[in-house]
Amino acid sequence: MVAEEMQRESPPKKRCLGEAPDIIPATELFFRCANLILPWLNPQELAFVAQTCKTLSLISKSITFHRSLDAARSLENLSIPFHNSIDSQRYAYFIYTPFQIPASSPPPRQWWGAATECGSESRPCFDSVSERGRFGVSLVDDSGCECEWCEEGYCKCLAFVGMEEIGNECGSGCGCGSDCSNRVTQKGVSLSLKIVRDEKKGWCLYADQLIKQGQFICEYAGELLTTDEARRRQNIYDKLRSTQSFASALLVIREHLPSGQACLRINIDATRIGNVARFINHSCDGGNLSTVLLRSSGALLPRLCFFAARDIIAEEELSFSYGDVRVTGENRDNKLNCCCGSSCCLGTLPCENT
User: Fold this and answer.
1) Are the C-beta atoms of residues 33 and 122 closer than 8 Å to each other?
2) Highest-confidence range of 70-84, 252-266, 340-354, by mean pLDDT?
3) CA distance 308 to 287
4) Mean pLDDT calculated for residue range 211-228
5) 92-129 confidence digits (pLDDT tens)
């Protein structure tokens, strides 16, 4: 029976000597090129291309639709969609990184089109959770525990219990793997979230499921800046904000050293390159998120991580306190109105001289 089936199969077509190879139709070739190039374009470039012909307009609309489905570009465990019933803006454009990276100027381009599997011809691979990728920026040595598997409460790296302000996790120098229970914040976003457009506040990050108290939400990822670069960028952002609708996501963190004589300053800018944490808004009542500075063994710089301060229901906005509101003579002209809506809202967002 097998032999009979084999005989019925048509033999492969043999190309004669000198015969021209199969020619790809021009239309198919056009679509292939468009699908390879257009997902690399920013919104302004994509809009310009869409005006050239009907076919490119349809492809551009498809890309815009797919961008609205996942702000994380498949770099997180779950898709994080945009929802907008306020205006025609389908998504917010920025370069996505799940972790801290060195400052980049100019910012790199990043594929953002239809979601396809890593390794396909139309989408490059991104290593979003590798040890070197997450810790390479601040790696100083390979010190760490020798445990092959850490159980909570038994690992010598573990200092994070509950909601303390500073904690430790296993890092690249530890013998345990990525599944170690002492690497809670190193596995990316694992809860359903969504980005919702608000008439007053702009884009906001919302829970899309029930989140229990103490669960990890995400870290604040972006470009690590020197203080001079942070000040230079903040001056640019202030000028942009004075002439147009513009929102920056430059966060300054100060970690006071045990001696009390000095503090470590960390500048993370998620304005151009960042993750979903850039959409978390301020709340004058402290919000529903706790901020924790987490160090990983072998890393010089800590990471700012967000945990649920209480149970958070689905469709609830995620928020935290940006800091104390201090409107002085130097920054009075740069103050921003607060729209958090809490009962204790002070009407002004926290700000300082960067």
Assistant:
1) no
2) 70-84
3) 10
4) 95
5) 999 999 999 999 878 889 999 875 444 444 443 444 34
Q: In the numeric block, which tokens belong to residue 75?
A: 């770099």
353: which residues sit within 8 A by CB, 6+ positions away? 330, 331
**CA-CA distance, 102 to 16, in Å (whole number)?**
56
Query: Over 187-214, what HEC string results?
Result: CCCCCCEEEEEECCCEEEEEECCCECCC
- Beta pairing class for 222-225 and 263-274: antiparallel
Residues β-bridged to residue 317: 206
**Rounded-to-integer distance, Cα 329 and Cα 287, Å:** 28
Which distant-in-sequence residues (6+ apart) come within 8 Å of 13 by Cβ?
none
Residue 103 makes CB contacts below 8 A (sequence gap 6+) with: 223, 224, 225, 226, 229, 269
* Alpha carbon distance 338, 27 (integer Å): 52
Q: Residue 343 gets which letter from DSSP? A: T
Please provide the DSSP assignment of 23-49 as one string: PPPHHHHHHHHHHHHGGGS-HHHHHHH
| Residues whose CB is less than 8 angstroms from the CB of residue 91 and which lie 6 or more positions away in sequence, other chains included | 64, 67, 68, 71, 82
- The residues, any chain, with a CB within 8 Å of residue 160's CB and separated by 6 or more, are 167, 168, 169, 184, 292, 294
**Residue 161 φ/ψ region, left for φ over 0, alpha for ψ in the -120 to 50 degree band, beta for the rest:** beta
Q: What is the DSSP letter of 295?
A: E
In the beta sheet, which residues pair with residue 264? 255
